[in-house]
Queue: 3 jobs
Job 1
Amino acid sequence: MSAIDRHAEVCIIGAGPVGLALACLLMRAGVTCLVADRIPNAANHGRIDPRALALTPAARAILTECGAWSRLAPASIGEFQRMQVWDAGGTGKIEFDSADLCLSTLGYIVNQSDLEAALNAALTHAGLDVIAMADLERVDFGTNRIIAHGPDGCRLTARLLVGADGARSRVRELAGIGFAAHAYDQHAVACTAHTVLPHGNVARQRFLPTGPLAFLPLADPHACGIVWSTTPEQARRLQLQDEAAFNVQLAAAGGHVLGDIVACGPRMVFPLQRARAERYCRPRLALIGDAAHCVHPLAGQGANLGLLDAASLAEVLVESVRTGRDPGSMQTLRRYERWRRGENEMMIAALDGMHRLFGSGEPAVQRLRNAGLDLCDALDPVKHWFMARAMGRSGDLPAVALGSAVLR
C-alpha cells in the first residue's frame, strides 16, 4: 500500500513526544495506527531543540512502556533528588527532598530532541514510520471513519483521528473546536548552560520580578537546562546578546547560585500562555497534549500532562478495541475526556495561581508569598502532598503511569 493512501484504526496528527508516545503505546498493544506530521521547515531541519523537559517518575513509567526510555543514552538523562525554590524579592524558600518520601529521585531532565529521537526509534522498532505531510488540508468526518487529506494527495483513513499537533492545532481548527487562550505577558528563553560549580543533582528555581528562572540539572554535573521566563522585550534582548554578555546576566539572575556561567548553547525563545480546548473530543476525534491544553512552564508539568493524556487515551482505546467497541464513538471518547479534563483543569488553575502570586510586585503580596513558602517548608505533610502530586504519584492516573500494568 502506498504512502499516499493508508488505513488504520487510529490516525495521529503530530509527531512530538505526546503523539509519538500514544502511537508507541497503541502499536505495542496491537492497535494499528498512523502518525503524520508536517514536513520540517528547511531553515529548521536538523536544528537541535535546546528545551529541557522535567519528567516525573510517572512519565518515565509511560516512556518505559513505550519502549523509549531504554533507548535514551544514560549520558542524556539528568536526575534530581532535591528541588530548591526561592523568591528573589524576599527570604522565603522551600526545599523538596526525595528522601522525605523514601524515594531515590524526584524526577528526570531530558532534552526534547533526545526524547523525540528515542520515541522515533521505538516507533520504528514497532514497525511504523512517521508520514511527512506538507499540511493537513481537510478532514472528512464520516459515520464510521475519518479521512485526513494532505495537499499532495495523501489520504489517511481511520476510525479515530487524534490531534497531537500542539497549541496551534490544525486538527482542532478543522474540527471547529474552540480554544480559550490567555497569553501571559512573558516569553521563555531556553538553552543549555555550563556552570563553574556542579549542580549536585538539585533542580533550582528562583522567582524574579519578571518571572521564574529554572536551572534543571543535566547528566553532565556542570550542565543545566535553562528555562528563563521574562518579559517579551527582555527575552528578545537575551536571545540576541552575544554569549559572554548573556552568561553574565544569567549568572546574576540566578544569584550566582552555581557560580559563573562559562558556556552557553543556542538560545530559543517561545511565548507563554494558558489555554484550554472547549472540549477534548467529538465523534471520531480526540485531542491530547497542547492541542487540548497549555500551562505555564514554571513547574515543568506541560510534557507530563501530555504524556498522561496519551497513556489515558491509549488505555481507553485498547480496552474498546479488545472488547469489540468502536474506538471513535462518543461513548468511548467521553470516558477519556471525563478522566483527563478534570485532572488537567486542576493543574492549569494551580499553575495560573502560582504565576499570579509570584508575579505580583505588591509589597503585601510579597510578604504573604515569602511567609507561605517558609510555612510550607516547615509543614512536612503539605510538602509531601505537593511532591506526590508533582511527581505523578497521586490523582486519577492511568495504570502504566503507576508501573502496575502494561497494555500489551
Note: The chain has ten helices and 20 strands.
Job 2
Amino acid sequence: MNIQKVGRGASSVLRHVFLAIVAIFWLAPIIWLLLTAFSDFPGINIRKFVPDGFTLENFRLLLFDTSDTVARFPVWFTNTLQIAILSCIVSSCFVLMVSYVMSRMRFRGRRSLMSFGVILGLFPGFLSMIAVYFILATLELTNSHMGLVLIYSGSSGLGYLIAKGFFDTISETLSESARLDGATEAQVFRLIIIPLSKPIIVYTVISAFLLPWMDFMFASIMIPSKDVNDWTVATGLYRMINNRFNRNTHFARFCAGGVLVSIPISVLFVIMQKFYVEGITGGAVKG
C-alpha cells in the first residue's frame, strides 16, 4: 500500500515538473518580448534576458514620433482595425446565417453539403493563396483593404459547425410557435434565435475578429505596396525590422508594437470570456 502511495506521489511530482518545464518554455518568449518592449536599449540583445534599464520611450516613439519614416504604427493600427471590424461583421453574419440554415432547414442534399463544407474547411487557406491573388489582381483589388476583407469573410460560412451545434440545442417548439403566429423564417431567426444565442454570437465575433487582426500571410501577399501607409500592423511591424540597420534601431519598438497589438484582444477576451466558453461548450453538445 505504501509502495502504491509512493508511486502515485512520484508520478504526480513528475507530471508537475514536466508541466512546469513546458510552461517555462512557453512563457519565456512572451516575458522576453515584454521586457524588451520596456528596454532602454533600442536594438536586439540576446546576451541578457533582463535589460539593464527600463523606459517607456519605445512606446512614445512608436505612437507619437511622426518624423520616423519607417514606423507608422498609428496608421497600421487604424488600417488593421478597420479591416478587422468590417471582416468581423460580414463573417459573423455569414456564419450565423449558414449555421441556422444547416440547423433548422431541411432540403435535398443538406447532409452532403454539410459534409463537403466540413471537408473543405479542413484545408488551410494558404493553399488557395496564388489563385486568390490572381483573381483579386484581375479585379484590381490587390493593394486594397477591401480585397483583404473579401478574403477574410468570403469563406467564413464554412466555419458553421460550432454555431450549428448551439442552434441545435434551442428548442424547436419556440420556432414552431412563432411560425403558427405568422412569423417568417427571417423573423424567427432575428426575433427568437438571435436573442437566445448571445454566447455563440460572442464566440463567432471574437473568432471572426482574430483572423484579420493577427494575419500576416495574406496581408503581405495581397498588399505588396511600398507605401507604409497601406500596411497592416502585422506587415508593418515585420517590414520595420526587415533589414539589419532597422533591426538595430527599432527592435525594441517592434516588441512594444507586439504588446500594443495584444491589448485589444486580451481586453475583449477577458470581458467576453464567460460567453466565449459557453459558446464553445454549447456548440459542442450536438456539433
Note: The chain has two domains: 2-61, 69-286.
Job 3
Amino acid sequence: MTGDQPGFSTRAIHAGQEPDPETGAVILPIHTSTTFEQDAVGQTRSTFDYSRAGNPTRLAVETVLASLEGGTYGRSFASGMAATDTALRTLVRPGDHVVLPNDVYGGTFRLLDKVLTEWGVTYSLASVGDVDAMAAAVTPATKVLWVETPTNPLLNIADIGALADIAHSSNATLVVDNTFASPYLQQPLALGADVVMHSTTKYLGGHSDVIGGALITDDAELAERFEFLQKSAGAVPGPFDSYLLLRGIKTLAVRMEQHCTNAETIASLLAEHPKVAEVIYPGLDSHPGHAVAAKQMRRFGGMISVRLAGGRDGSRVRGR
C-alpha cells in the first residue's frame, strides 16, 4: 500500500485548502456566488466566471480528492451516478461494449441496461474476482472494464493490477469504483487503473448528509473531457455540498480505521453465530479474495455481508 497515514491525514485536512489570504481563516469560505465579475467581456479576474463551470469551494474538493487518490485531476459531481454517467458517456459510443462485475452496484447496472443500451452500447457480466472470466468477457468492441472492489453488496475483490493489464492489452479503459474502500484503504491509480470513481456520499462524506460523486485520473485528455461534460450537462455539486464533503474528508483516516476495527470484530463474532451460514468479509481467511485484498488494501473495510442459516429471511435482520 502506498503512502503513510500521517501524510494522508495531512493532505485530507489541507490539500487545496490554504488559509484565506485576506482574513487568515483556516476553513475555506463557502463561495455561494453564481457569477464572478469580469473586467471586460471574456476577461475574468480569476479562473472563475460562472459556478456551473467552476467554483472555488468545488475546486478545493477536486484538489483534495485528486491528492488522496494519488492522481493529477479530480472532477466532482452532484452524485455518484452523475459521475458514473459522465465517465461512461465519455468513454463509450454506439456499438461499444462494457464489461461489468456480475454483482455490480444496481444503479450502475440500471444505467447501462436501461439507458445506454438504447444508445447502442452492449455489456457483459463476469465474476470480478476471476481474472480469467473477466478476460474472457472482453471482445474486440470492449472499451471499458468497469469494476468495483470490494463490490456492493457481495464484497468480491478485483485484482486491479491484473485487470489493468487485460484492459490495456485490449485498448480498453479500466475504471475502478473505489467507493467501498475509500482512498484511505486503496489507491487504484497506483495499481494501474485509468480512472477512479467515487460515490462521495458514502465514506468520503461520512455523515449521511450530502450526496456527491467524483472522477479522478492522471490522463489530461480524459480529465478535459470529463470537465466538458461536467460543465455541459451541469450535474455539479453546489458550494454547500462541497463544503460538507470537505468537512467529512478531514476525518476520513480516523473514521476508516474505526470502521475496519469494528467490522473485523463483528465479522469474527458472526462467524461463530449459529444462525449465520456464511460471513462475507475480505478480512477473513475464508474469503476467496483475501490474499488479493491484503496485497492492494491498507485494511479490509467496514462492510460485511452474511448469508443466514436455514434459509432465514434476511429482511428480518436489521442493525443501526
Note: Residues 171 and 263 are 38 Å apart (CA to CA).
